[in-house]
Amino acid sequence: VHTLLGDSYLPVVANLKVLSLGLLPIGLVRIGIAVAMVRLEQRKAVVMAAGGAIAFVALAAVLVPESGSRGASIAAALAVGVTAALAYALFGLRPTLGAARFWRLTACGLFAFAVLELPWAAGPLTGLAALGLFAALLFGSGVVRTAELRRLAGAIVT
Fold first, then answer.
1. First to last CA, the chain
2. Of 31, 87, 100, 124, whose CB count within 10 A is highest?
3. CB 17 within 8 A of CB 52
């Protein structure tokens, strides 16, 4: 962090690590919102968002007095997870996620994230290693296929 962002970010490194855990479930929330729009199920989307907000307020009320800003970060990350679980349940996302290879993508992301947490190299090297691992896992697990990339490249070029 010191090398890439400067010393002013050092006090919030722990918070940023916790908040980064919320990035994976945000994808699930976004899929839920898209499904709600297509199906015209805005009320379910409101229930999903309200559930996440209530979870955040409740978790923050418990965690912030004890842990301060780190508690707020934990509450935010967990609330995003609650919102994602609600999206999954309310919109029946299992078939959609299967078609999108979501669980394999999530596993690839978690493995790459784990590399970021290893203290084996300097920040930029760790980031590059995680990015390389993520790309390799995407292809190795079949989340991304070379034929799909060729079709995409062909659509862009033409």
1. 41
2. 87
3. no
pLDDT in the model for residue 121: 59
- Strands (DSSP E) along 23-83, which ranges? none
CB 70 within 8 A of CB 77: no
Q: Which of 31, 142, 19 is nearest to 90 (CA)?
A: 31
Tokens of 18: 């916790």
Question: Is pTM beyond 0.70 here?
Answer: no
Phi and psi at residue 121, in whole multiples of 5°? -150, 170
* Distance separating alpha carbons of residues 158 and 155, to the nearest angstrom: 5
Residue 144 zone, left/alpha/beta (φ > 0; ψ -120 to 50; rest): beta
Helix, strand, coil percentages for the chain (3-state, nearest 5): 85, 0, 15
Average pLDDT, consecutive stretches of 10 residues, N- to C-terminus, the chain (158 residues): 68 80 84 92 95 96 93 93 94 81 78 72 69 84 82 81
* Residue tagged 């899929």 (tokens): 31
Cβ atoms of residues 34 and 97 within 8 Å: no
In angstroms, what CA-CA distances link 67 with 14, 15, 18, 53, 55? 12, 11, 13, 20, 17
d(CA 13, CA 151): 40
